[in-house]
C-alpha cells in the first residue's frame, strides 16, 4: 500500500478508503443518557442489542458507519471502540457539537472562545476523544459534526468558525446538521466564508428539502449531500427522496450524494424490537436503488465510496 494514500480514522485506527465498504454516512450507534437534558432526548445504550445488530450489519455485507454524536451530548468513545471491536464494523466517531437542546444548560463549549473550541476539536481529531483520554485505549475522531439551528441567528456561529479552523488545520471533513435543509444557502456561505473548502463539507438531512435546482448547485460547487429520510414516512420518501436520487444520478451528479439511515431512536433498531434496522441499508435501500435503475458503480458511490473519499485525510 502506498504510504501517502489518504486514510480514514476509525475508532479502532486508520483504514484505507477502499476498506470502508458499504458505509452508512450518518447514523448514531450509541447515545449515553445525559444528565440535565430534556427527557425526550434520544438514548441508545443497550450494549447487547447494539452489538448484535452491528454484527448483523457486518454479516449482511456492511462495512462502516459514521457516528454523528459529538462529545458532551451522549458520545462514548470507549463504548464505540468496544462495539467496533466486537462486531468488526468500522465506526467513525466525531468531534464538534450538536443542537443546543441536547446539552445541559451550562455546557462549556457554547461559552468558549473560537480558539479554545478549535483547539479542543483539533485535540479530539489528532490525539483522543476527551472521554478516552485515560484509556483503556485512546480513540480519535474521524470528522467534525456541527449543527445549525432553525435560523443562523440562533446558531453558535463562533463554533462554526472554530470547526472550520479545525478543518483547515487537520483537513477533517465537516458534516453539518441542518433543520430540514433550512437556510442551506446561508449556511454554505457562512462555512465557505470562514475558508472551508467545499470538498470538506457534507450537508445533512437536505433531502427533507428536495429541491433539485438547489441540490444540483451545491453538488456542482463540490459539496457532498447526505440523504436519510428512507424510514421517515412523514417526508414521503416515495414521492420525494427516491425521485430526487434518480434525477440527481441522471443529471450526472452521483459523486455528490451519500446515503444514510440516521437511527437515533431505538424504534428503528431490529434488536430493540423496531426496524428496519442497520441492515435496511443493504436489504431495502440498495435493492431500491437497483429498482430505480442505478448501476452497480453508482450504487457503490452512493452507499460508501463518496463518503469514504471525503473522510480520508492525508
Ligand atoms: Zn443524526
DSSP helical segment count = 9
Distance N to C terminus: 14 Å
Indicate the overall shape.
globular
**Backbone CA Rg:** 18 Å
Largest sheet: 6 strands, parallel
Strand order of the largest sheet: 6-7-8-9-10-11
Mean pLDDT across all amino acids: 97
Bound molecules: zinc ion
Percentage beta strand: 5-15%
Q: Helical proportion? A: 25-40%
Per DSSP E runs of 2 or more residues, the count of β-strands stands at 11
* Helical/strand content category: alpha/beta
Q: What is the H-and-E element order? A: EEEHEHEEHEHEHEHEHEHH
List unreliable stretches of 5+ residues. Answer: none
Verbal overview:
- The protein has nine helices and eleven strands.
- With 314 residues, it is of the alpha/beta class.
- The radius of gyration is 18 Å and the shape is globular.
- Helix 1 crosses helix 2 (77-87) and helix 3 (114-126) packs across helix 4.
- Strand 7 (143-147), helix 4 (157-170) and strand 8 (174-177) form a beta-alpha-beta unit.
How do the helices and strands line up, and which of them pair or pack?
Layout: E1 8-10, E2 13-15, E3 22-27, H1 47-60, E4 62-67, H2 77-87, E5 90-92, E6 94-96, H3 114-126, E7 143-147, H4 157-170, E8 174-177, H5 184-193, E9 201-203, H6 212-220, E10 224-227, H7 241-250, E11 257-259, H8 280-291, H9 296-311
Parallel strand pairs: 3-4, 4-5, 6-7, 7-8, 8-9, 9-10, 10-11
Antiparallel strand pairs: 1-2
Tags for this entry?
314 residues, alpha/beta, six-stranded parallel β-sheet, three-stranded parallel β-sheet, 9 helices, globular, binds zinc ion
Q: Quick recap of the structure?
A:
This protein has nine helices and eleven strands. The protein is an alpha/beta fold and 314 residues long.
